[in-house]
Amino acid sequence: MRGLITDIIPFSVNDGPGIRTSVFFKGCPLRCRWCHNPEAQRGSPQVLVLPSRCVRCGACAACPAGARGPRGELDASRCEGCGMCVSVCPAEACRLSGTEMSPESVLSRILPDRPFFRGRGGVTLTGGEPMEQPAFALALASLLHREGIHVAMETCGHTPWEAFRDILPFVGLFLYDWKITDPELHRSWTGKDNRLILENLKKLHAGGAEIILRCPVIPGVNDTPEHFRGIAELTEELPRIRRVDLLPYHALGNNKRLQLGMAEDGFRPPDEETVTRWHRSLRALCRVPVCR
Ligand code: SF4
Ligand code: SF4
Ligand code: SF4
How many Å lie between the centroid of ligand 1 and the Cα of residue 65? Predict the structure, then answer.
């Protein structure tokens, strides 16, 4: 069995409790317009090009998929991820995102990090969306569980229930995204409505899952009283939600968007005062702690 992985990053402190190793899966069913990991959306390997390094030599124009222009321009929609341009580029301007790995090879990358987990930390499956590769995620989570390593999963929740049902015994914590309460607005900003996401959240809750709700807040998209009330109502209805994480929009994804030949997302990061106001509003509404 092979999975498609974009990165494995040790010493992560923002993806669950303690010190963790984060495994980034490639492929996601959503297309959030503010996505900070756009290279993880497509479920196949693809190239990124660093414009500042490119010397416009044209060596990559021989791309068999016709994805590169005469001076190295990238048409990401045509890239088939063959890696040819990475090997011919004299300036190391190209890199391939998406490596096939077995669950055992991912585990062997993780095991040296185990001393840093110190009981509290562990491994977080993230992405992209881990549940886009459900058999691989299940195999990896069960290997980690057998090793006694805590597994957290960051998920957008948009997957057939059976995938969650099967992996639930091996996942100690779900970092569950709740992006927009209104289903149609959710569709217009992410490409899918949130009905399946909500159903899965309720089923995970009924199945005894530990859940932290992760709420990205994007100025002009979901920084509304209606959505904040929606978040609070979820924490009332589902008492196993132990915390809400407020994730203010940041623009770090734009750098990668440029490397993928995409336009910038057009959002602006909120200032500190705005984030403090959001935090205060959510804290006043929610029965659980709200962290930022
Ligand atoms: S081979 Fe590298 S340096 Fe040359 S045009 Fe392509 S990306 Fe730029
Ligand atoms: S990896 Fe490079 S050479 Fe291969 S299809 Fe993509 S752009 Fe073309
Ligand atoms: S769910 Fe996450 S990875 Fe997928 S498109 Fe949205 S922000 Fe990007």
Answer: 16
Ligand 3 mean position, distance from CA 32 (Å): 5
Measured from the Cβ of residue 115, the count of other Cβ atoms closer than 10 Å reads 8
Give the Cα separation of 96 and 277 in Å (integer).
40
Give the nearest ligand 3 atom to 30 CA: 5
> pLDDT by residue (tens digit) across 232-265?
999 999 999 999 999 999 999 999 999 998 899 9
Count how many residues are written for the chain.
292
What are the tokens at 264? 């910038």
pLDDT tens sequence across 133-161: 999 999 999 999 999 999 999 999 999 99
Please work out whether the CB of residue 60 comes within 6 Å of at least one atom of ligand 1. Answer: yes
Domain 3-43+98-291 belongs in CATH node 3.20.20.70: yes
CATH fold match for the domains 3-43+98-291 and 46-97: no
Cα angle 130, 16, 270 (rounded to 5 degrees) comes to 90
Nearest residue by C-alpha to atom 8 in ligand 2: 63
Candidates 134, 132, 78, 72; CA nearest to 103 is: 134
- The model's pLDDT over 199-231, given as tens digits with 9 standing for 90+, comes to 999 999 999 999 999 999 999 999 999 999 999
Ligand nearest the Cα atom of residue 74: 2
Q: How far is the CA of 65 from the centre of ligand 3 (A)?
A: 26
Domain definitions of the chain by residue range: 3-43+98-291, 46-97
Q: Which CATH number fits domain 46-97: 3.40.50.2300, 3.30.70.20, 1.10.260.40, 3.90.1010.10?
A: 3.30.70.20
DSSP for 257-271 reads HHHTTPPP----PPP
User: Using CA positions, which residue lies closest to atom 8 of ligand 3?
Assistant: 35
Is the pLDDT at 34 greater than 90? The verdict is yes
Q: How far apart are CA 3 and CA 138, in angstroms?
A: 11
